[in-house]
Amino acid sequence: MRKLKKLLAVASVAAMTLSLCACGGKKDDTYTVGICQLVQHEALDAATKGFKDALVEEFGEDGIKFDEQNAQGDANTCATIINGFVSSDVDLILANATPALQAAAAGTDTIPILGTSVTEYGVALELSDFNGTVGRNISGTSDLAPLESQADMIKELFPDAKTVGLLYCSAEANSQYQVDTVKAALEKLGYTCEYYSFSDSNDLSTVTTSAANASDVIYVPTDNTVAANTEIIKNICMPAKTPVVAGEEGICKGCGVATLSISYYDLGVATGKMAAKILKGESKVEEMPIEYAPQFTKKYNKDICDELGISVPDDYEAITNE
Question: Which CDD domains does this one have (predicted)?
């Protein structure tokens, strides 16, 4: 009887050991990725989807786990989300939009961080010597479209305009960078430009009204606060008959007439492929240069253009609602 009890005890211990090993093996084979997205809008949503799709394609549904959280436009919430990822010791962090990247950079210097939908990494991270590679534990993809080409688009569409209002959120460093660059390019083309900055969505309506009344054309960069509130801008600019040229397609679909567009889904896919290389140990995040969208397309919002009586050249592609 004692011998039997001893055999049963050994068998029980062996079974528990195998169970623990099985659980440990599953954990080791599954990567956990924290996703901090600043706010919900079409461009950022597409980037996140592309990122996740690329990683699921690489590792399978069981090989990758996502902790996806949205900060609802609040930079302080980004910091809280990132701190949670750090406490959970995730394998990698995706920071979708500039404030999310800034929070991630402040939150950890060990966990690999990839940014996406970030316009200019040197500006976002206050790097005076940025040369295309951030270094430390940060890399990612940029949604920067050629800003001089956006200025040229305004000249192409509105050659008789005199004044351009630059509408942007002053809390977003990359928005300031974009409007500064576009302003310089427009002034070389003979336009008079005026800044119209707002601190958050609370004063967007008032500032937009001022811009619409004083400008022949309004330019908005790839600005997350604008992207989340395009209906406000449309409802002000359409009655004023003031056309809006946008820095990205999602904003243009909501309130603009034209844009030089990239695919945010493809940008997310590129970021996901970078993440896969990091997780598999094929690349070191600190050595990976920032990647940029491979192509840009001139697009226009047919409904708004028709309503404002604006004709566009044949090389512009209509934005679809798909």
Answer: PBP1_ABC_unchar_transporter (cd06325)
Angle at 250 between CA 187 and CA 67, to 5 degrees: 125
Q: How far apart are CA 201 and CA 229, in angstroms?
A: 7
Entry pTM:
0.77
Whether the CA torsion 174, 175, 177, 181 is positive or negative: it is: positive
Residue 112 shares a structural domain with residue 235: no
- For residue 283, CA distances in Å to 94, 113, 208 come to 16, 13, 45
Condensed to tens digits (0 to 9), the pLDDT of residues 267-316 reads 999 999 999 999 999 999 999 999 998 789 999 999 999 999 999 999 99
Token digits for 12?
A: 């029980």
> For residues 109 and 288, what is the distance between their CA atoms, to the nearest angstrom?
16
Burial of 1 (0-12, 13-18, 19+ CB in 10 A): exposed
Looking only at the bridges linking them, the beta strands covering 244-246 and 258-261 are parallel
The helix (run of H) or strand (run of E) holding residue 67 is strand 64-70
Mean pLDDT for 219-238 is 95
Are 227 and 153 contained in the same domain? Answer: yes
> Same domain, yes or no, for 281 and 307?
no
DSSP character string of 158-177: -TT--EEEEEEETT-HHHHH
Contact 117, 143 (CB under 8 A): yes
CA distances from 203 to 167, 168, 210, 319 (A): 12, 11, 11, 29
Strand partners for 115: 95, 140
Residue whose structure tokens are 């001893």: 6
Percent of the chain predicted with pLDDT > 70: 91
Whether residues 75 and 223 fall in one domain: no
Domain count, the chain: 2
pLDDT in tens, 41-58: 888 999 999 999 999 999
Alpha carbon separation from 190 to 129, 152, 182, 227, 248 (Å, rounded): 32, 11, 12, 28, 24
